[in-house]
Amino acid sequence: MKAIGTVHKYGDNVDTDVIIPARYLNSSDPKELAAKCMIDIDKDFVNRVKQGDIIVANKNFGCGSSREHAPIAIKASGISCVIAETFARIFYRNAINIGLPIIECPMAAKEIEAGDQVEIDFDNGMIYNRTKGTQYQGQAFPEFMQKIIKAEGLINYINEN
Amino acid sequence: MGMTMTQKILAAHAGLSQVSAGQLIEADLDLVLGNDVTAPVAIHEMEKMTIKKVFDKDKIALVPDHFTPNKDIKSAEHCKCMREFAIDQDITNYFEIGEMGIEHALLPEKGLVVAGDAVIGADSHTCTYGALGAFSTGVGSTDMAAGMATGKAWFKVPSAIKFVLTGKPEGWVSGKDVILHIIGMIGVDGALYKSMEFVGEGIGNLTMDDRFSMANMAIEAGAKNGIFPVDDLAIRYMKEHSKKEFKIYEADKDAEYDEVYEIDLSTLKPTVAFPHLPENTRTIDEVGEVKIDQVVIGSCTNGRIDDLRIAAKILAGRKVAKGMRAIVFPATQAIYLQAMEEGLLATFIKAGAVVSTPTCGPCLGGHMGILAAGERAVATTNRNFVGRMGHVESEVYLASPAVAAASAVTGKISGPGELGL
Ligand code: SF4
To answer: Reading across the β-sheet that carries B259-264, which strands appear in turn?
Structure first.
């Protein structure tokens, strides 16, 4: 499995309240959520984002509430992968459970810049920055998580097993 | 190798004699929780599953607390979805308006969680029940759906940080100040993926309500869970509230901890977290002049009876400052009733505060007290992220009920000391 796209870059502690503010949680429709994705931290994100794009952020991405609406909004906005130095744990499992690939890689998080073209190979956790010609070894998923992501989420995985 | 308290509970629920940090396990669940925001998403997910019935109708708790009483049509639709599911699946612990309260205050009060339990909730503050010596953690809606259907959840076994508490908190210092102090010390990701285990003789000087508010905010340090040993006070609480059998797990003497912190509770001062992160803490003597527009006393962190008693003690015979809005929201119907019988509600109303029916309301910027651009609130809630209580240019300062009540009187961030208390 591979992802390739343009990078949107953020800092530390991007919380779920800015990814999708509570005032929009009276909807659970992915399309409606995607239309408000990142609105409190990056108003223009929804206009800029293209199918396949990648989010890169620093530490503790997705901290705060357990709202699955956050990874759902990100996935539905077209993002193919989130790379961060670290992820908040509920966001981490939510992303896997809904089949949004995420990778922890501190060096990549530090060096990749907004607008870079980045390619990710999920099978081995390699991250290639095509703009800068650099590459990074991200943390590959344990086998169990790879199976969930391949099944496109926990529900399908349970159904299949 | 020795195990922490959390690891022991997880091992027992995974049917293993030993687990170690980093291990992926599948654990049996004693309770699966959801609310009006997260449950509809989970119910929708469950519809896609081949398993159609919940694993145990007594082990699911559904609490419409976030946007209730229904704030608007969309919220009403969500509550309806949850209500119909509860009826259809014959869920025992569905709490309609009138019985409901904020989930993390309600579940312990109704005796649905006891020591030794493994609980997941599609709400990040599910970690609150660690105060009772249970393993409980927040998850998302898909985990909730899988949990409702199978009675199981996957976990990565966490390592732990130990906080050895000694001494007795002085004056108006409460559990909220202790946890804010800790988050200020280790940061909002200081316990990422880990358990926070609170131990030491100082725990004997903390009420159950103090412990609930501390375990509640473990997630604000990034932790998977926060947990307390089970002492006589906790046992008394469980016996009073629950018929369920509890089981006490103690950490092994040779359990490994990533870090150990010692905290003398007698040295702590009332503490306030400045915008926009719970780690931006300052003690009350360092806050300076911060004028505020609103005070919120309530939430799953500090909407319990002790919290209301403290606030009432400070507001009794005093008035909310002119131009200030003070909102008190008791966390459950039982707390609301108790506060009424003790005369606390009358104290709040006479002081010029508003008293709300139990709801999450303003805590998550839902309804009942939203901030306009440029406004500042002192809140006893647990998060002060950008836009958490309303406009992106508003600000939330997190504090204890004592500081919130005193601030309501002065119109700026103040400790009770400023009122000569
Ligand atoms: S009171 Fe606030 S933090 Fe607690 S469950 Fe409700 S919204 Fe979440």
So the answer is: B225-227, B195-199, B160-166, B259-264
Q: Which atom of ligand 1 approaches the CA of B303 most closely? A: 1
The whole-model pTM stands at: 0.95
Phi, psi of B309 (to 5 degrees): -60, -45
For residues B297 and B327, the answer to whether their CB atoms sit within 8 Å is: yes
B200 — alpha (psi -120 to 50), left (phi > 0) or beta?
left
Selected residue of A33, A63, A72, A147 to mutate for chain B interface (largest B Cβ count, 10 A): A63
Q: Which residues of chain A approach chain B closer than 8 Å at the C-beta?
A: 13, 15, 17-18, 21-23, 25-28, 40-41, 59-60, 63-69, 71-72, 86, 88-90, 93-94, 97-98, 142, 144, 153-156, 158-159
* Interface predicted TM-score of the whole assembly (ipTM), two decimals: 0.90
Distances (CA, A) of B416 to B182, B265, B405: 22, 18, 8
Q: Helices (H) and strands (E) in chain B — how many of each? A: 13, 18
Place of tokens 């940061």: B187
The pair of three-digit structure tokens given for residue B237, joined into one six-digit string: 């609480």
Amino acid in the structure at residue B59 = K
Cα distance between residue B8 and residue B230, in whole Å? 14
Q: How confident is the model at residue B79 (pLDDT cuts 50, 70, 90)?
A: very high
- Residue among B2, B276, B39, B271 nearest B148 (CA): B39
Q: Calculate helix-pair angle for B141-150, A89-98, nearest 10 degrees.
A: 70
